[in-house]
Every structure is written in C-alpha cells, then in structure tokens.
Amino acid sequence: MLTVAFVMLAEVLIFVPSIARFREDYLLLRLERAQIASLASSAAEDMIDDELEAELLSNAGVLNVVLRRDEMRQLILSSPVPQPIYQSYDLRDVTAWQLMRDALACLLDTEERVIRVLGQPVRDGGQLIEVTMQSQPLRAAMIDYGLRILVLSLVISIITAGLLFFAVRRLLVQPIRGVVGAMQAYAQAPEDARRIIVPSATLVELREAEVALKSMETQLTGALKQKERLAQLGGAVAKISHDLRNILTTAQLFADRMELSDDPAVQRAAPKIVRSVSRAVNLCETTLAFGKAEEPAPALDRVQLSLLVNDVVDSERLAAGDHDISFSEDVPAGLTLRADPEQLFRVISNLIRNARQAIVASRAPGEICIGAAEDDNEWIIRIRDTGPGLPPKAREFLFQPFQGGIRKGGTGLGLAISAELIRGHGGRLELEHSDETGTAFTIRLPKGANELEESL
Predict the structure, then answer these.
(1) Is the pLDDT of residue 382 over 70?
(2) pLDDT of 246 over the 60 cut
(3) CA-based angle 422:423:427, to the nearest 5?
(4) CATH number of the domain located at residue range(s) 294-455 in this protein
(5) How confident is residue 269, by pLDDT bands cut at 50, 70 and 90?
(6) Domain map of the chain by residue range?
(7) Relative orientation angle of helices 174-188 and 204-258, to the nearest 10 degrees
(8) How far apart are CA 424 and CA 401, in angstroms?
(9) What is the dihedral of CA 208, 212, 214, 216, to 10 degrees?
(10) Picking from 29-33, 57-61, 270-274, 326-330, which range would have the lowest pLDDT averaged per residue?
(11) CB 412 within 8 A of CB 401
(12) Which of 129, 100, 127 has the alpha carbon at shortest distance from 32?
C-alpha cells in the first residue's frame, strides 16, 4: 500500500508537466494540420467549394486558418465562429510555467470557449499561422490522457508493490522472523549454549544485529552459569559456616579462659586471640555466601584505625613466618573513622594478605606499608607492597568474582568482597598502580554521614 501511494504521489508530481506537454503537442498538431489544409486550399485556388472547405477545417479540428506570408495576412480557410474569441495563446515563445498554468486553466474551465492559437509554420511555410478552435475538444482530450496516465500508474504501482513485497519478505521479513524465533528459543532455556543464535543473514545491517545478539546471549549464558555456581557456593558456605561456628564457639570459650592466666605473654596474646575468634564467629553467623545473599548493611561505629590495623598486621606477621617481609604502619594514633569494624577489618586483612602471598610467591624479600590520612571530605587508607605486581588478567577483571584471581589457584573473591563492602560504606576501593615495583590499593571512605551526625 505504501508503494502504491508513493508511486501515485510521484505521478501527481509529474502530472501537471505531462498534461501541459500534451496540451502543447495537441495545439501544435492542430496548427500543422491547419497549415496542410491551407496549402491544399492554396494549391486548388478557386476549385474548393464550401463543402470541401468545411471538411478540411473539420479534419484539422479548427474553425478558421489565417496564414501570414510575405508580410501579408491572409484568411485561407474560414467557417462561422459561434462566439467571440475568449483567449489567445502564442506558442512561438512560451515558458514552461505558462504552459502549466494554461493547461490547469483549461482543465478547470467547463464552459465552451473559442480560443485563438498562434504558432510558427513548419518548413518555413510563412511568418505566422493562426487558427481559431473550440476549447472543449482539447479539454476532453486532456482528461482522456490524464485517465490513461492514472490507469498506467496504477498498473505500474501494483506491479512494483508486488515485486517489492516479495523482495522485502525474502530479504528482510523471513530473516527477522528467524531472529525472533531464535530469541524465543533462547528465552526458553537461556542457560543452554546450543540455543545461542548463529549469524546467517546476508544483509550487512541484519547480520550486525545477529552478531550483537549472539554476543549478548553469550554473555548472558555465562552470567547465568556463574550465578548458578555462586548459588551452589552459597549453599556450601552456609553449611560450612554452620559447623564452623560451632567449632569456633568452643574455641572462643577456651580463649576466654586464657585471659585468666597469670602468664604475661598469654595475657598479651589472649585479647588478640579472643578478637580473632570473635570475628570468625561473627563471619560465620552472617553467612557470607556472595552467591547466596548480599552482604548485610554495615553497622557503622567509631573505629580507632591504628588498633584495627595493628591486629591485622600481627596476624599477617605470624602468617609470614620466616619469610623476609617487613610491615610498616603509618597510621595516626588518634585517627578515628566511622565504619563497620568487622567489615573494615576484613577489607584491610584481604588486601594485606594478598600482598603477603604475592611477596611469598616471588621468593624475594618485600615490604608492606599501611598508611592513613584524612581531609575535609574523606578518610584515605593506602596499602602498598613491593611485590611483583598483579598479572594482566587480574588487572582486567580486578573486582569480578572467579575471574580476578591474583595468585594461582585463587578464586578472586577476596577483592570482589572487599569492593562490595567498601561500596556499602559509600566509598571506593581503587587500584592506584601495579607493576614490577609493587602494587598499591586505596580505600576511600566518605565523611558526609559523620559530619551530618556531629552537626546534629
């Protein structure tokens, strides 16, 4: 239907010039026939009677013929004119705009008129030929021509529309239906990689759409498989956490009794052991699954950062054993920030543990530095090491679980969990740099909530 409409619109746009050209040809033909009739009359001289003169005028389709030759104007053929001349048209020097204007005027005029037409005789048959004729035969011929154009346009548009319909159906509709069918089949079982679309379209644009759809489905299938693995991991961690909590509860009871010992070394170590066991129990009770449930919202409290960092460093120093690793703390003694102490401990512990493991794996001496500072807007904690730096894959998928593993055999969960915990505080965990000289991470925690509370 659109094709038919567009073809008809194009015909309308060219109809006026076409009908104007037809009118001009019609009038020129009458002038040519009138000239032939006048030549016949001139050749026969006085032998043409009234009946033959009327027949010549009828065949020419005119009422009178005037020929100007040798600076003389001569009435060659004549017949009674039923009414005065309504309009004169000179075809010798006429513009396209005048032809179109006169053609439209002729089509719209339903009255019978007598018009005069002037033109240049053919084959130098004189200086001017002039005829008078009735306008309605011209109008009838123009209407008949317009109807024939309309019918021809309809036939052309219908044939064009049919060819276009089958071409579009073959080149576009059927491939698009194939894409829709592939999408519907994939939607029924998106985890089935066999249902991912295989690009097959020949049209460039449609093939690009199929390639983009294949990429999206591939990523979605991978994400669904990862989600399934995370859910399974969540169930496993929940079970392990249940049993581990019971074991750690017993250890916590023994650690509480250690505080009653008179041994100075035991008294110094007991609080650290108690806090470590308490954190482990708390970790089990919150049931970190990362594939089963999201991390709980942080329970914000005032945290003296130096004490928390000291606990982490003492634990990691023991874990380092005989390996040549030095730990340095550059945390102001009075720096207090607002955070969840357990979650912040886990983040710092993850970062320092990763640094320690990287240095141990390099079999070279190393140093781990923990620094902290603050400004008007945020608290800043930096953890730097002199290890071998992160591998390229770890940098590419740094905070993605199961993809950004730093060491061989690692799952990549540590950094993903740490980033999630810091985001829960409204902050950011950033990688400053990582190369052969070492790695540096920055934790940024906003002060906005704390300042609001103090202002109240």
Answers:
(1) yes
(2) no
(3) 70
(4) 3.30.565.10
(5) low
(6) 2-158, 193-230, 294-455
(7) 20
(8) 17
(9) -170
(10) 270-274
(11) yes
(12) 129
